[in-house]
From TrEMBL:
Molecular-function annotations in GO: glycerol-3-phosphate dehydrogenase [NAD(P)+] activity; NAD binding
Keywords per UniProt: Cytoplasm, Lipid biosynthesis, Lipid metabolism, NAD, NADP, Nucleotide-binding, Oxidoreductase, Phospholipid biosynthesis, Phospholipid metabolism
Enzyme class, spelled out: oxidoreductase
GO CC term (a single one): cytosol
Organism placement in taxonomy: Bacteria, Pseudomonadati, Pseudomonadota, Alphaproteobacteria, Hyphomicrobiales
Membrane-spanning residues: none
List of residues binding NADPH: 11, 32, 105, 137, 252, 272
Subcellular location: Cytoplasm
Protein name (database record): Glycerol-3-phosphate dehydrogenase [NAD(P)+]
Gene: gpsA
UniProt record similarity statement: Belongs to the NAD-dependent glycerol-3-phosphate dehydrogenase family.
Start and end residues of each Glycerol-3-phosphate dehydrogenase NAD-dependent N-terminal domain: 2-157
Residues forming coiled coils: none
Domain Glycerol-3-phosphate dehydrogenase NAD-dependent C-terminal: 177-311
Function: Catalyzes the reduction of the glycolytic intermediate dihydroxyacetone phosphate (DHAP) to sn-glycerol 3-phosphate (G3P), the key precursor for phospholipid synthesis.
Length: 323
């Protein structure tokens, strides 16, 4: 089963290595810039996005999108806000039997669509799945043990993708709860910014843990409203990814929060939480769900309040029962 990866960033490159190892097939890693892809092909490493990691010998870096036409699995691994445009560009090339998998974590601005809905709209009639879970690209590319959720309403599609990606160290667990898996991935990036900001401001490990746990409660309320299963939210793609992302400086979202909390300039790297937070809060509001921590992150990122004022605002909220 051939896998093609669209998006030659850190995560796309790591997943291309996994797929090449799992399938033993030539795996196109498709980027948008022919010059950059030629460099990656020459150097056998993606120096800009995933430095010091050699490409698997089966990975074929290219800017030629037609190389995905005969792939049984197409992994879409671009920033969430660009997913629709990229999926629309490749729509005519994807075979009807292929499973198209979102590797994105976020909510689309404007439409408030989760990534699998973006795929459904851009690639109507296609077989779809979503991959999410605690998995830093570098860890995966180094072959360190990793477990993720592979969600699809189409169980045969999920099984096919799992087979095309499972290696001795990369373990995709199947789920039919695509909404739960997508929500966990989107919310944890925002909550990791909050945890980082609290840590950066020096408020202590107890405060960081409170932020993570109350953030998880926000995710739970939104999940309930959208029909996600509680066990998905408590699993790899929910709590698992939240714990990872909200506790490690390897995370771009946590690092952004740390910088905000310390009053330092934000790191110049993609933090999906920053791109997603307004849409996540709007999606929650549409369903009558309050997300005070995520709202505070949105306010801080928009420059409307300081981290100190946001924390003071959260501490001033009336106490309720824990849920
Ligand atoms: N990094 C990680 O550890 C993980 C990331 N993810 C998720 O994967 C997604 C991608 O993240 P990641 O790979 O880290 O991001 P990167 O910033 O490393 O890479 C993003 C890639 O998308 C490409 N891209 C950006 N805009 C466009 C566009 N308009 N059209 C086509 N291609 C575009 C970029 O191309 P170019 O290089 O030319 O700019 C780049 O190759 C995110 O949703 C993220 O949350 C999920 C799990 C782990
Ligand atoms: O999604 C990730 C790990 O599961 C990567 O997190 P960051 O985007 O915060 O680096």
């Amino acid at each position: 089963m051939k896998v093609a990866v669209v998006g030659a960033g850190a995560w796309g490159t790591a997943l291309a290595n996994v797929a090449a190892e799992a399938t033993g097939e030539l795996t196109p890693l498709i980027g948008r810039d022919p010059g950059r892809m030629a460099e990656i092909a020459r150097d056998r490493t993606n120096a800009a996005r995933l430095p010091n990691i050699p490409l698997h010998k089966g990975v074929y870096p290219t800017a030629d999108k037609t190389t995905l036409a005969d792939a049984g699995v197409v992994l879409m691994v671009v920033p969430t806000q660009t997913l629709r445009a990229v999926a629309t560009e490749i729509a005519a090339l994807v075979s009807p039997e292929s499973v198209v998998v979102s590797g994105c974590k976020g909510v689309e601005k404007g439409t408030l669509a989760l990534p699998h809905i973006v795929l459904e709209e851009a690639l109507p009639g296609s077989r779809r799945a979503l991959l999410s879970g605690p998995s830093f690209a570098e860890d995966v590319a180094l072959g360190l043990p990793t477990a993720v959720t592979l969600a699809s309403a189409d169980e045969a599609a999920a099984a096919l993708v799992c087979e095309a990606l499972a290696t001795r160290s990369f373990r995709p667990y199947r789920s039919t709860d695509i909404v739960g898996a997508a929500l966990g991935g989107a919310a944890k990036n925002v909550l990791a910014i909050a945890a980082g900001a609290v840590a950066g401001r020096g408020l202590g490990a107890s405060a960081v843990a409170a932020m993570v746990a109350r953030g998880f409660a926000e995710l739970g309320r939104l999940g309930l409203a959208l029909g996600a299963r509680p066990e998905t939210l408590a699993g790899l793609s929910g709590l698992g990814d939240l714990v990872l992302t909200a506790s490690s400086t390897q995370s771009r979202n946590f690092s952004l929060g740390l910088a905000l909390g310390r009053g330092e300039p934000p790191p110049n790297k993609l933090a999906e939480g920053a791109a997603t937070v307004e849409a996540l809060v709007a999606l929650a509001a549409e369903h009558g769900v309050e997300m005070p921590i995520s709202t505070a992150v949105a306010e801080v990122l928009a420059g409307r309040v300081s981290v100190g004022a946001a924390v003071a605002g959260l501490l001033a909220r009336p106490l309720k029962s824990e849920i």
